[in-house]
Each structure stands twice: as C-alpha cells, then as structure tokens.
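Recap from last week: sequence in, structure out.
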Amino acid sequence: MAAAGSLPAAAARLGRAVAAVPEARLESVRVLAGLFREAQPREMAEESVFRNLLEVLMSASSEIEQVYKDSCELVDLDTCLLLIAECFRCLRNACVECAKNQHVMRNLGLISTSVHLIKLLHGIQTREELLLTALRCSLQFLGNIAAGNGDSQNSIWKCAFPDLFLTCLTYSDEKVVAYCCMVLFTCLNSEKVRDLLDPGNLTVALHVLKVYKEQLESEWSFLIVTDHLLKCPELVKALYAKLSNQERVTLLELMMAKVSEKNPVNSEEMNMFMRHADFLAGCFQEKCEAVLKLTSAADAEDEEALVTIRLLDVLCEMTSSNGQLKHLQALPGLLETAIDTLRLTHLAGKQTVNIFTATHAMTGQEEISHPAVGFKSHLIRLIGNLCYKNKENQDKVYELDGIPLILDNCSIDDNNPFVNQWTVYAIRNLTEQNERNQELIAQMEEKGLADNSALESMGLEIEKQDDKLILRSVRKKPL
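Predicted structure tokens:
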C-alpha cells in the first residue's frame, strides 16, 4: 500500500525531471522502475507516466543520433545508456500481467520507438556492459509488452521483422540472443511462420537453428523450432535445403524430440507429421548409401553419413506411431531402400573388418562410441515396423529375398546392440498370418540355412504336418 501511495509523487517527479539534467531523470526513472515491481502501482499507473518515459527515450535517441552524425563529445554516452536501460526496466516491469499498460504503451508508439532505439544501439561500436544492459532491457520490454497480447505481437512484427531479429540473433552477447529468441517465440503464430518462407526471411529461421546448435541451453530457440517451425512442413523443407550436414543433424534431432512426444495429436498435426514423413523418407532413399563411407576408419565422422543415421532414427520413431505407420507402410520405395541398405552394410561388414562387421567381444571404447553403432539394428527395426500387419509388405520382403538377410543378422553383435531382439520382432511381423514366409523359414531350417537355436530364441519351432513344414509359436509349458 505504501508503494501505491508513493506512485503519484514518483510520477510527478518524473514529469518535472523530463526537462532536467540526465542524472535527475535517471534517478526519477529508477524510483518508478522499483515501484512497478508490485502489481498495485502497475494497475494505478496513468498514461502520463508512459508519455514521459517515451519523451525520455526519444531524447536519448536524439543524443545517440548526434553521436553518429558528428562524433559529438558533449554527449555523455555512459549516462545516456544508463538512462535508456532504466527506462526499459521501468517499462518492462510495468507490463507484467497488465494488459492496460501494454495497450497504453503500444498506442503511444513505444514499440516503434524501442525498435528504432535498438537499431541505434546496435550501431554503437562498443561492447561495454552499459550498452549490453541497455540492449538486454530493451528486448525484455518487447517480450513483456507482447506477452499474451496479440495486438502488441502484431505491432512488433510490423516494426521489427525481419531486420531486428536478423541483427540480434547474430549478436555477440548470449543474453541479447536469448532475449531476442524470447521476443520471436512470443510473436510467432502459424500465419507469421509462413512469413519465414520468403527467401529473404528464411535467414531468421536459419539463425534460430544456429543459436540452438551453438547454445544448447537456449530454451527459447528450442521452443521456436519445436512449437512453430516444425509445424510448417514447407518451411522445414526449405530450411533443410539451406543447411550444412551438421545443421541437418541438429534439425533431425529436434524433429526426433517432437516425434517422440507422447501427447495426443489432432488431424492437422497428423497431416503435418505425414508430410514430414514423406520428405524424410525421400531424403533417406536419396542419401542412404552415404553410410557406406563409414566402412573406412578415416571417414568415421563423415557428415553426410551422420545425416543418414539420424534420418533412419526419425523414421524408426515415426513408424512406431500407429497414426504415421500406415502412411509410411504405403510409401513407394521405403521398404525396398531399407532392405537394400541392410544388404549393402551386411555385405560390407563381411568383406572387410569395419563398423558393420559383427563382433562378439568389445575391443574398447572407440567402437562403442562410433556413430554407426546400432545402424543395422535400426534398419531391421524399420523393416519390422513396415511389415506390421501388412501382407503386401510381408510379401515384398519375401520377393526381395530379405528374410534370409534378416535371419543372417540374428547373432550377438556388439556393434549392433539389441539386434537379436529387433530380428525376433521383424520375423514375428513377417510371419504373422503369412504361410509363405513361415514355410520359407521352415525350409531354411531343414536345409541348415537357418539356425534352429536362433528360431527357438524367437519362440518359434518347425513342425512337419502332412509332408509340409510349418513354423509355429512355441507355447510355454505350465510350471
């Protein structure tokens, strides 16, 4: 209550200080900034307070412009920067959970004035703490005036996009970058995301992804990508084309995080995921053979191969979702590509000793940390998923001679953890209600081409009925 009672006096003091020396203005603004930390003074604030703060900021802008024009040494730049930072602190605090103040400030033109001032501050050739503080506070103000306020978000977008974001997302100060991401996240919606598709604006999205890659603790950049950018398949496709292979890996890891969410999805989101699936499956089919570069120890970190590995990871996760599975099962060429890639990597592992060679004893930390560890396991997982309750794909694997290939991978392999389990899963999906596939495996076992102990480990056994070999599940005997 005492704070609310002191508001009129502080407001009057600011009114008198507008035309006073900078030091007097600074002190009066600082008092108000402190008062606006509490809800009641914020609610009681009158328009005249914000009009006076606008006048102080405009005066500061003029002084900085004077520095630009003739390097005027009469301007006390330090005091000017202190005053700008304090004004933005005051405005930032006054916006918190107060729509009334947000509207008043926007209608007075404080958003356009702030954006103009940020651009001026960016041009000052110094990285001293006073300048950084002024920039940080200015962006925090824009974030607060936009919070929960569509009109302010639209106003910022109109004044600041794309120039301010292009400027601040590449700034040398991590906090300036983080607060810029906060403003961008707050302003974005499905309509504004489409603005990023313009070739001149796509750079904003590219910068956000670079921020995430370089500053892994930047929560705002993560949220921009997962909550906004990934919801526009056309933007993802345009972004992907512009990214380096390292950046593609980063984008695919973010897509993996989104796809792995267990939240229920509506029809619009399902359509979005299906469009992503089409695109990623196409990328995988186009670049899958790049993984063979990893047979050479010298190419263990080949970036194009790392992209292929991440593409497979995302496709495995997508085919684990019932909603996306049927769509991916029907995609032309995906199953064939998975089988071909498994055959190529399996053959490469037999021709020379490399990461695709089955190994039964860990030889050290180097192999375990190899990026291709588990690649064949994931190919078998993808094949198994694509054949789940799908007769057409079961038959396709038979025709492509994929069943013997999968069975040949059923062994302990330190380079492919869980390969046995994924092979069991794939064979079960391939043989479910498919007599031809069951008969093929039974014939292979009789001829010694399939390991009976491996079949037993899958819970399967061969039985002869009427001169016909049948593959059936083994029922556990009761204890």
